[in-house]
Amino acid sequence: MTNSLPSLIAKRPLVLDGAMGSVLQQMDLTIEGDYLGRENCVDLLVRSRPELIQSIHESFLAVGSDAIETNTFGANPIVLAEFDDEVSSWARKLNREAAEVARAACAAHATDDAPRFVLGSMGPGTRLITLGQVRWSDMLQSYTEQARGLLEGGVDAFLIETCQDLLQVKCAVNACMKALDEVGRSPIDVPIMVSVTIETTGAMLLGTEIAAVVNALRGYPIFSLGLNCATGPREMTANIEYLSLNWPGAVSCIPNAGLPVLVDGRTEFPLQPVPLSETVGDFIDRFGVDVIGGCCGTGPENIRLLAQQAQQRQRSRRDHSGWTPGCSSLYAPVDYRQEASFFIVGERLNASGSRRFKRLLEAGDIDEMVSLARQQVREGANCLDLNVDATGRDNAADMGEIVEHLVRQVDKPLMLDSTQLSTIEAGLRHAGGKCIINSANFEEGDEKFDAFCELARTFGAGLVIGTIDEDPEAAMARTAERKESIARRAIERAVDVHGLAVEDLFIDPLVLPISTGMDDDRRSALELIEGVRRIASEWPTIQITCGLSNCSFGLKPVARQVLNSVFLWELMDAGLTSAIVHASKIQPMNRIDPDRKQAALDLIYDRRALSAGGTGLPANIDDELFDPLQAFIDLFSDDDEAAGRQVERTLSLEEWLQTHIVDGEKQGLVTHLDEALQKYTALEIINDHLLSGMKTVGDLFASGQMQLPFVLQSAEVMKMAVTHLEPHMEKVEGSTRGRVVLATVKGDVHDIGKNLVDIILTNNGWTVHNIGIKQQIEDIVQAWRETGADAIGMSGLLVKSVMVMEENLKVLNEMEIGVPVLLGGAALSRHYCESHLRDIYEGPLYYGKDAFDGLRICDLIADGRGEAIDAEIELRLAKRAAVETRVSAIQERDSSDAEAADVAMAERSDVADDVPVPTPPFWGSRLIEEVPLSTIYPYVNTVALFRGQWGFRKGDRSKGDYQHYLEEEVQPIFDRLKQSMADDGILRPQLVYGWYPVAGDGDDLVVFDPEDHGAEIERFSFPRQSKRRRLCISDFFRSVDSGERDVLGLSCVTMGDEVSELAAKLFADNAYQEYLYVHGMGVECAEALAELWHKRMREELGIDGGDSPHVRDLFTQTYRGSRYSFGYPACPDMSHQEILFRLLQPERIGCRLTENWQIDPEQSTSAIIVHHPEAKYFNV
Asked: What does the DSSP assignment read for 688-739?
């Protein structure tokens, strides 16, 4: 049929309509009259207001839609039943009526040259099978009823859209095929289109990534696969690209009008029609997208522009050669062919072969089953075999319950193993990923074999086929010829009759024991090797697997490991691609004793004498009675069983005490402390052993061999030990190492560095009086006087805080106080402290690089060795002076250039002044009170978090080892905090942002009234470079002399007070490691929200076309324009925060300015947003 939907798509991209819901939300509809008493049941409007629905359809058809979706997004019986049973009973008729309304709209606009099509919309509903909210059978019945109505109304295709759960997709696809089959039609007649929803997290709602989607759905007769809803087009880039490279059918892209924002209590979609259409058009060019349209927030204007793109753009040809077959968990795919390995199927979740699992099954201990599954994953399993067949139990119920838990808690595919069809199906109904069925065979003829194939087709699963047939004497194929013959029969029937892909078939040529000594078993291994070689040669894309451990049945465990391992490598060499094994029991060939390896090979290849029926004696054997089985067994003594046992570390009591501190090990600490109290006093334990451990910790940290989180873990153990020993210590005046007052200076809210100093000093015998943040010098002095402290420590993060420190030192001079002072903080340099500030202060003044440097200085002060530090400082200053003398001579030669630069200071830079000014969606400011954490987390800069905030540094690890360390040890911490902070409401993201008319005036940026663009209301002054391009931020905007107005973005974001409060509590509770994690998480999430919102603001201006699709690239400014924060080189004046606060009023989200113009709470940040393409970070 020339006017068919596939025919049109073959010529150019198909254009769908926009958002029916967005249009309806703008209308004043009544509950009784329009919704028939069911509030917001929009599916009823086809009955109560068919003319309204048809007019909306026609509004999209009039501007260029090729196809419209029926108003049936929620019109299936399960969803309608949430209103009442009566409307649920109307489901089939409502779908038919909706299709007829849409068909009438199309008839009014269709021509011979421009046919119009009706797509039957089938939404996800409100319940998910994977979460156990609805049964597969109920959802299948519901979708089938909906599909029947849509077919009766005359739809041209089904559109299963906004899919959030792979099981829901599978169920809906099967429902469509069932309804088609009932009327003698097929998916070729009425195509099935599928569109999944990928959230801003980069995955579907349940965590499924796009690769797993393709993997799980590739075997179904799906005409097109794509994305809709949740995000704008830019966020879809990476996933659309993946589909273009890996999905064999048509690819669709139906985005929202940007990411939704909550503005004054209502949801808005900020992306304008032009940038949306241009981005989608770019997808046509780059990725060959075949179906385009609009989702939430899109209207006729969006569709008009998209229709133009469909006519103007030329699709690129897609190359699918990189596709690799595999299976998948709910979350991610796993290739069948593993590079440099084999597809490892873990064998331990098997009631028939594992006593441990059988006990867990009988006890109903799901948690331990999950733990056993995870253990196999850690050992290297790519897939997990699950067999629950046990006499006297409801196997189907067991399979369903266990699979329901495993799929959500273990990120590996499942191989469902049973001889019972009902048991297999029960598991498949709970598994959203692509499973493997184990197994089909011909033992009961074609009928049962066909039933297994139908299950595989229905659920899109792989299928293991054993080489067993109906032969009453020898059903299990023993010879290579029989194995190949049965494999051929199975492959031809599975592929030709049932339409299964050959690459999804696993042939199991059967492993039989070679350990019995029986003549019938002697050749089993070599026949299997030959059978594998033949099958692999005949069908090179097929998978070949086996249950490996059968070969060594009855042997000692150590002997079994050797034989299994050697046999596996021989099978792999012949073409085996997979094996069901205990992965940790397989040994590399280079670790197996050569004699044992050779003996195993002799056994595998039956190297008995020819006269005894073997294949011939080994080269070094001439005894005709030689038995390779007995020779192999004799190589393993009883002593071998103990060889693999782990030897427990043996340490002296004193070594244990130090080890507890160094390793941060709490287990056994109290026992060892109590034992030590029988030998030493409490103070001796602390001073001679525990503090010795802390010294080791300090040395390891200083040399880069220990990461900061583990230092804090050691400090927690030290605190725990001291707390346990305190009741055994006499309170002796002066028993402390010394006393220190610590404070963050006036106006500064950052306390992480100061608190780390507190932790290290406290756990090394010092008494610390930590008086907190934003401390006036008068309060610091008062604390010093009250405590009689030996030293004062002052900390601060920002440049302004260094100025405050200098003022504080002068005040101390005026008070004639000469107590030793330690200074530290990110903005303070050692040289500035030891030269300029040391000259100002009349008492001893020292710079602490980090907490352990502070400890070293304090210890030297306590020991009366301050002159040692002074000598270090004098030596550093002398070396610095010598260098500066040489540099000054060079600088004198350049003085003439500097004078010329001074003359040029007033000149404007060469920044382009004719860049088109984008139009913002509004003028003034807006309050955003809710931003889902799930949209923020992907923008967390994990490099800054893991290395900077948490201190997990590379050290002397290789790049690969460091990456593995981060994935195994650090990423789980991040994942845990993401979940807990979301669940507990610790992070409360809010922001204010806005757009303001501006113009440059020399070095100033003039801000005008959002309503009266001629009235100046504020003015920023920025520094200009004295050399290079003489850049100044004001140059990136239209000049005030031009008479035009440019646009400036402003933003202020916060994570709220709760995260700071939690960090403070953790610190008070001595949970130092968790304190570090929580504090860093809050800071980086604030930065992530700022990064996310900067992206949103670029989208609002329509300048996001150059954005990298990869979030990590955004951290290196792979986008147009810049986000500048006050205090950084291009805009160093922190007092400009006052201007931003007057414009945006961040007090609405709980933000406050300190005396130093820092934002409180600490987990907040502000910025100015510059759109100019040349605006990048620069120094002045």
From this structure: IIIHHHHHHHHHHHHTTSS-HHHHHHHHHHHHHHHHHHGGGS---TT-SSEE
Tokens describing residue 217:
């759905």
Query: Per-block average pLDDT, block size 10, for the chain (1180 residues)?
Result: 78 95 87 87 94 96 97 95 93 97 96 94 92 93 97 97 96 97 95 94 87 95 96 90 94 92 72 92 94 95 96 88 90 89 92 89 91 87 93 92 92 94 96 95 94 96 96 89 96 96 96 88 94 96 93 89 93 94 80 90 94 92 92 78 42 88 86 92 85 80 66 80 81 71 84 76 87 89 92 82 90 92 84 89 90 86 85 78 64 50 59 91 90 90 89 78 83 91 91 95 94 93 86 93 94 94 87 88 94 90 80 81 88 90 93 84 92 87
What Å distances lie between residue 136 and 406, 428, 441, 706, CA to CA? 17, 10, 27, 51
Residue 1113 vs residues 196, 286, 950, 1110: alpha-carbon distances, Å: 26, 20, 21, 6
Phi, psi dihedral angles at 854 (to 5 degrees): -60, -40
Rounded to a whole number, what is the largest CA-CA distance in the chain? Answer: 110
Pairing of strands 333-335, 326-328: antiparallel
d(CA 718, CA 665): 10
User: In this structure, what token pair is assigned to residue 441?
Assistant: 């065979």
Predicted model pTM: 0.68
Q: What is the C-alpha radius of gyration for the chain, rounded to an integer number of angstroms?
A: 36
- Lay out the sheet containing 462-466: strands in order across: 543-544, 505-508, 462-466, 436-440, 414-417, 383-387, 343-350, 578-581
CA gap 293, 17 in Å, rounded: 6
C-alpha to C-alpha distances, 95 to 67, 90, 150, 153, 747, nearest whole angstrom: 17, 9, 5, 7, 64
Beta bridge partners of 157: 119
995 φψ region: left (φ > 0), alpha (ψ -120 to 50), beta (else): beta
Residue 934 near residue 202 (C-beta atoms within 8 A):
no
Burial pattern 532-568, b for ≥16 Cβ within 10 A else e, equals: bbbbbeebeebbbbbbbbbbbeebeebbbbbbbbbbb
The structure tokens 């049941």 sit at: 41
CA nearest 1107: which of 258, 228, 30?
258
